[in-house]
Amino acid sequence: GDSVTQMEGPVTLSEEAFLTINCTYTATGYPSLFWYVQYPGEGLQLLLKATKADDKGSNKGFEATYRKETTSFHLEKGSVQVSDSAVYFCARASGGSYIPTFGRGTSLIVHP
Amino acid sequence: NAGVTQTPKFQVLKTGQSMTLQCAQDMNHNSMYWYRQDPGMGLRLIYYSASEGTTDKGEVPNGYNVSRLNKREFSLRLESAAPSQTSVYFCASSVFGDRSSYEQYFGPGTRLTVT
After folding, report:
1. Which candidate, B26, B112, B9, B107, places its Cα nearest to that of B73?
2. CB of A73 closer than 8 Å to CB of A66
3. Which residues from chain B sit within 8 angstroms of residue A99, using beta carbons?
4. Choosing among B103, B105, B110, which should be mutated to test the A contact, i.e. which has the most A CBs within 10 A?
5. pLDDT at residue A110 above 70?
6. I want to staple B43 with a disulfide (CB 3.0 to 4.6 A). Which of A38, A111, B25, B35 is the partner?
7. Closest CB to B102 among A32, A42, A44
8. Residue B114: which of B97, B89, B95 has the closest Cα?
9. In this structure, what DSSP letter does residue A30 have?
10. 8-state DSSP, A82
11. Each residue of A83-107: pLDDT tens digit?
């Protein structure tokens, strides 16, 4: 079945470091891809999305590019802040099932 | 717009007690979902409702029932709570119909402890 695999956390960084969180997905159909963020004590909120190959989603300094050839959608940010500390979820969804498949989440901890 | 709202925010139950978690959305979305989140398990879908009048089981439906009361409201009921149902419960909604609408909007969660 459809699946999403994320790197395990926690990822611990110092402020202003470069961030990469890896995500790969199963290529069944033509999925849309998403990154959601969950801040402590809150629900998930959409961070960015891409709906077709080579699209780049971006928001709040985060970016991810839809790579069909490697079935990847890695999340990157050039300079993280303490306020970026959260859990990040990669997800895919495609026709035939409008229900997203989520990865298990990657915890990011940013130290001052 | 309030988005997706959930009540209560916190609840403690004794084993065998029942309760209903409430969820409402004001975005005119067709589809609504209930998830549970447990450490190391990510999000698991309990039940969903593609549109008003329909409900379907997700990955982990045992021990739960749902009601799609109208287009806005989707409730989750625990008939006889068990310690294994201790979790954080999230309601979500989405528009159903095209590729860009797969994104979901989440409520703030209900933190349930069963003793």
Report:
1. B26
2. yes
3. 33, 45, 48, 58
4. B103
5. yes
6. B35
7. A32
8. B89
9. -
10. G
11. 999 999 999 987 665 788 899 999 9
Q: How many CB atoms lie within 10 A of CB B44?
A: 15
Measure CB to CB from residue B42 to each of A95, A98, A104 and give the nearest one.
Answer: A104
Does residue B102 surpass a pLDDT of 80?
Answer: no
**Amino acid code (one letter) for B73:** E
Asked if the model's pLDDT at residue B100 lies above 70, the reply is no
Token look-up 């979500």 returns B92
CA A111 – CA A81 distance, rounded (Å):
8
Q: Are B21 and B75 in contact (CB under 8 A)?
A: yes
Q: What percent of chain B has pLDDT over 70?
A: 95
Total count of residues recorded for chain B: 115
Please write the tens of the pLDDT for every residue from A3-56.
899 998 899 999 999 999 999 998 777 888 999 999 999 999 999 999 889 999
Ramachandran assignment for A63, one of left (phi > 0), alpha (psi -120 to 50 degrees), beta (any other): beta
Beta bridge partners of B37: B43, B88
Q: Which residue has the tokens 């969903």?
A: B48
